[in-house]
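Researcher: I'd like a candidate sequence for this fold, 379 residues long. If you have to choose between options at a position, lean toward the conservative one.
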């Protein structure tokens, strides 16, 4: 990392911006597999992180000279651990994974199965894919690093993936899924029905049809994506075709249900987002329609009202300062009715709901109500 970044933060007024640069600054100096020997150094050019997966691409230096390109993958395994526990198993020292790599040009995608090894120092399962394991002519690898190298080892060379490692700067995307090892830990018995963490059976929404609530608009993905594109621009997000939903988050028998109760969601960004962010979308609540009142479990969501006016519902007590607003009982999607505060909303209003919180929106007016929403999974 350029030392000028450190100089910036010597000024107190810049301290607030440190978080903007924090992850990449750390990754350039952190522990990686070969750094147990001072003869090896890494130049990490870019880092991408998802909910449980981190990828770093860059170069390895040996004795101060460039050795090869590398791609490091780290998987924290919380989700797979839960799946294994449901089957009465625990995770051992290694996991099996599948990954697919492709370039910015989109041609020549390659894929392979790989092995991840648990590293207690980083608290994750890791693998480093090196372009070559051969030391420079006339030298030998350090005795502390040599045992980590080889087929299916912590530092490995996978021939099928070499086309994308040879030009590491051109690497655009990584798709990834991971499963339990072939044998159980610690008994070494064969693993029956090994469980996969393929992004927890993640799906995305796509406007394949304008028929409300059509199953054709739900697309199975079932793997993680880390995208090395650095920026995305939409000149007019309103040009994104909406996905339409009839009686979204309303129970059967709810008096608010009707054939005409259809809301629209423009899914502006989904898989491209990193960290724990699941989506960013714009929602249109047409006149005299409603988004059902629902509880968030394990996720948080922020609504920013863009324009229009309406009524939001928030569970009584979720925000104690709402006690001055009317108290009503709302049917809760999939759960029992619950007391809610009826909140007036307009352009500029913000609704922030944490895990366990309740919200919903009604538009009783003759003009559409629009808001944008971020949803992300709780820690």
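Model: Candidate sequence:
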């Amino acid at each position: 990392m350029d030392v000028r970044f450190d100089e910036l933060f010597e000024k107190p007024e810049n301290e607030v911006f440190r978080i903007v640069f924090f992850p990449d600054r750390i990754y350039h100096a952190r522990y990686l597999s070969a750094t147990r020997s001072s003869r090896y150094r890494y130049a990490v050019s870019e880092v991408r992180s998802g909910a449980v997966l981190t990828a770093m691409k860059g170069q390895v230096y040996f004795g101060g000279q460039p050795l090869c390109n590398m791609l490091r993958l780290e998987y924290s395994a919380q989700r797979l651990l839960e799946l294994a526990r449901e089957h009465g198993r625990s995770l051992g020292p290694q996991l099996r994974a599948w990954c697919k790599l492709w370039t910015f040009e989109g041609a020549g995608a390659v894929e392979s199965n790989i092995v991840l090894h648990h590293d207690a120092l980083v608290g994750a399962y890791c693998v480093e894919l090196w372009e070559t394991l051969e030391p420079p002519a006339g030298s030998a690898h350090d005795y502390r690093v040599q045992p980590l190298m080889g087929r299916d080892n912590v530092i490995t060379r996978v021939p099928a993936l070499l086309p994308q490692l040879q030009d590491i700067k051109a690497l655009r995307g990584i798709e990834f899924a991971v499963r339990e090892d072939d044998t159980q830990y610690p008994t070494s018995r064969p693993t029956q029905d090994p469980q996969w963490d393929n992004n927890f059976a993640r799906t995305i929404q796509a406007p394949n049809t304008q028929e409300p609530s059509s199953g054709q608009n739900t697309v199975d993905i079932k793997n993680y994506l880390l995208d090395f594109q650095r920026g995305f621009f939409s000149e007019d997000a309103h040009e994104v075709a909406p996905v339409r939903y009839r009686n979204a988050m309303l129970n059967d028998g709810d008096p608010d249900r009707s054939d005409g109760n259809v809301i629209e969601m423009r899914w502006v960004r989904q898989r491209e987002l990193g960290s724990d962010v699941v989506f960013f979308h714009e929602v249109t609540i047409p006149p005299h329609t409603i988004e059902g009142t629902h509880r968030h479990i394990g996720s948080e969501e922020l609504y920013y009202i863009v324009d229009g006016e309406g009524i939001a519902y928030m569970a009584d007590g979720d925000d104690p300062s709402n006690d001055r607003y009317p108290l009503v009982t709302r049917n809760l999607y999939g759960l029992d009715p619950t007391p809610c505060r009826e909140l007036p909303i307009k352009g500029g209003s913000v609704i922030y709901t944490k895990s366990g919180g309740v919200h919903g929106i009604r538009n009783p007016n003759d003009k559409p109500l629009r808001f944008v929403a971020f949803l992300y999974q709780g820690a």
